[in-house]
Amino acid sequence: MRIRPLSAALAVALALSGGALVAQIGGQGIAPVDSSGAYEVSGVAVDVSAKTAEAARLGGWRLAQRRAWNQLSQRLGGGGAVSDGTLDQMVSGIVVEREHIGPNRYIARLGVLFNRARAGALLGISAYADRSPAMLVIPVQVSGGVAQVFEQRSDWQAAWARYRTGNSTVDYVRPSGSGADSLLLTVGQTGRPGRGWWRTIIDQYGASDILIPTVKLSRQYPGGPVIGVFEARHGPDNDLIGTFTLRVGTAAGLSQLLDAGVARLDTLYQRALREGLLDPDLTLSPPPTPETVVPEDELTTGDGDVDAILDDLGAAGQGISVSVQFDTPGAAAVSATESAMRGVPGVRSAQTTSLALGGVSIMRVVFDGDPAQFRTALESRGYQVFGQGTTVRIRRAPQLLPPDMAPDNATAP
Predict the structure, then answer these.
(1) How far apart are CA 149 and CA 233, in angstroms?
(2) pLDDT in the model for residue 289
(3) Per residue in 284-316, is it b (16+ CB within 10 Å) or e — as a string?
(4) In angstroms, rounded to a whole number, what is the distance separating the alpha carbons of residues 206 and 200?
(5) pLDDT in tens, 80-95
(6) Where are the beta strands (DSSP E) in 67-175?
(7) Is the pTM above the cut of 0.85?
(8) Do 321 and 341 contact (CB within 8 A), yes or no?
(9) What's the alpha-carbon Rg for the chain, to the nearest Å?
(10) Given CA atoms 399, 403, 409, 410 in this order, what sign does their dihedral have?
(11) DSSP secondary structure code for residue 247 in this structure
């Protein structure tokens, strides 16, 4: 989840409304689940007996880890049997899908999450996957003729919050729906093509573009079948990428219907990304700074040291302003990244302008040169740079393990 302070855009909205919109700001938020990109193996069935219920449950989780690792190894084509100690270090979470606990028996269906970096090292695959620029998700639900986003809690937003986006090549920015979200991200906003206001909004969430997944729900009768028409939409012009229809027999299965719809939409968005349909809209980038043109009749020539004159002109220049998006899992990451940016040759200043602990923050960097030179300077310092022009996103390049490094459970000769 990415948290932003009360933005200038919200202040403008409140000023124009005379404060009447304050009542719409409430706690309708649903925080997204972890998006760290862990490998997930779901539907692992276990049935274990032991002397106590706690011992049976612990034994069931141990068994689920082993079975899930075997499935993951077969799926990714590598690895083999590993010790329980190694599995404990790789497993980042257990998801209880369904369980029954007795005095000395544990029956459950579990999901197992494996740390991508550690599991990838044993499986011999890279832990890094190239992803799209950050995409702001605005989930629109139409039910009973009423369209909504974050005005009230909806099943559609809950489905997007449940979905684990870490394994997707699309970098989703999912607002929680709390605070200013219900004012800035509305159904009406999805139909406004004005780029200026869109630029103001996506800047608040550290995104580069917009995705508008839409579902239109219709019910045959109360408690009966539910039909969902899903649309994958993109960009400030609300362009349609693809659509499909799903049906569930009873209203009790609505959550399963929406979960399946989110997964299908993610597939559509990933395919659109591969085909180049999700390239950021250049009109969402800030307009270039106008250049001052000196009339030719005002130009003068004279003698002097050309190198000294050029040095003076460079010292007097203002440089370019670059908006840099970077991950900030904690407060230490902010100061560390600012210090690293100031150490890049050609950087005059680096200051965080939008802070989001646990998400993506934005830094304003003043650089002597053009954007291409700035990109080259960052890459030479070990950064991976995404985006173009004066708006980029950076990540530290992954440190891959040597191919001949022994696994954790290997014994010394």
Answers:
(1) 14
(2) 54
(3) bbeeeeeeeeeeeeeeeeeeeeeeeeeeeeeee
(4) 10
(5) 778 888 888 888 788 8
(6) 91-101, 105-114, 135-137, 140-143, 146-148, 172-173
(7) no
(8) no
(9) 26
(10) negative
(11) E
